[in-house]
Specification:
globular, 11 helices, mainly alpha, EC 3.5.99.2, hydrolase, thiaminase activity, Thiamine_Salvage_TenA, Thiaminase-2/PQQC
C-alpha cells in the first residue's frame, strides 16, 4: 500500500465527503449552479497563487538537490502553465484575470492555503506534501472517476471540460508524479511513530478541500 493510500484510508469519511461532495456530484450531472462554479473558479485562481508559494517553501525545506528540483518544477508549472490554463478556462465563463486578482479571498480560501503554509513552516517537507496531496492527487482521482463513470452527463454538461482536464493524460501524469514523490519522501522520513501526525495533517487538509467545495455552493 502506498503512503497516499494509507493516508486516504486513515481519513475515512473525510475523504469520501470530499470526493463525493455535492459540488462534485453537481459537476457530474450538470446541475451545479453556474454562480457556484464561477465563485469557485475565482477563488481557485487565488488558491493557486498560494500553492505556488507552498511549493517555493518545499524547495527551501527539501533535503537534496533532486527534491529541490522536483518542487521547483511544480512551482514553475503552476506559475507558467496551470495559471495560464486557468485564465484561459475562466475566459470561457467571461471571467477576466483582472477580476480574479481584485477579488477578495473567501474565508475558505484563506483557511486552506494558510493551513498548508503553516504545516510547511512548522514541519518538514513530508508534512508539507501530506498537506498538499489531497488537492494535487485528489483532483486527478475525482476527474478520472467522473470521466469513467457512465452516469456522468456528457451531452450539454457545462462542466465536462473541467472533468476532462483533470482526467486527461497531462494531469494524470502530474498526479502520478506526486504519488511517487510522496512515497519517496515517506521512505526517507516516515516512521510508524510519526504516521498518526501525518494522517492528522492529511485529514485536516481533506476537510478544508470539502469546505472549498462548500464555499462554491454557499455562493449560489
Amino acid at each position: 500500500m502506498s503512503l497516499f493510500q494509507r493516508l486516504k484510508a486513515a481519513a475515512g469519511d473525510d475523504w469520501r465527503d470530499y470526493v463525493e461532495h455535492g459540488f462534485v456530484r453537481g459537476m457530474a450531472d450538470g446541475t451545479l449552479p453556474e454562480r457556484a462554479f464561477r465563485h469557485y473558479l475565482v477563488q481557485d485562481y487565488l488558491f493557486l497563487t498560494h500553492f505556488a508559494r507552498a511549493y517555493a517553501l518545499a524547495v527551501y525545506k527539501s533535503g537534496s538537490l533532486a527534491e529541490m528540483r522536483a518542487a521547483g518544477e511544480v512551482m514553475n508549472g503552476i506559475l507558467d502553465t496551470e495559471m495560464k490554463l486557468h485564465v484561459d478556462y475562466c475566459a470561457g465563463f467571461g471571467i477576466t484575470p483582472e477580476e480574479m486578482e481584485r477579488a477578495p479571498e473567501d474565508v475558505a480560501t484563506m483557511a486552506y492555503t494558510r493551513y498548508v503554509l503553516e504545516v510547511g513552516l512548522q514541519g518538514d517537507v513530508l508534512d508539507l506534501h501530506a498537506a498538499l496531496s489531497p488537492c494535487v492527487i485528489g483532483y486527478g482521482e475525482i476527474g478520472r472517476r467522473l470521466a469513467d463513470d457512465p452516469a456522468t452527463k456528457r451531452e450539454g454538461n457545462p462542466y465536462l471540460s473541467w472533468i476532462g482536464m483533470y482526467a486527461g493524460q497531462e494531469y494524470q501524469e502530474v498526479m502520478q508524479g506526486a504519488l511517487a514523490h510522496l512515497d519517496r519522501l515517506g521512505e526517507q522520513r516516515l516512521t510508524e511513530a510519526r504516521f498518526d501526525r501525518l494522517a492528522t495533517v492529511f485529514a485536516q487538509a481533506t476537510r478544508l478541500e470539502s469546505a472549498f467545495w462548500q464555499m462554491g455552493l454557499d455562493a449560489a
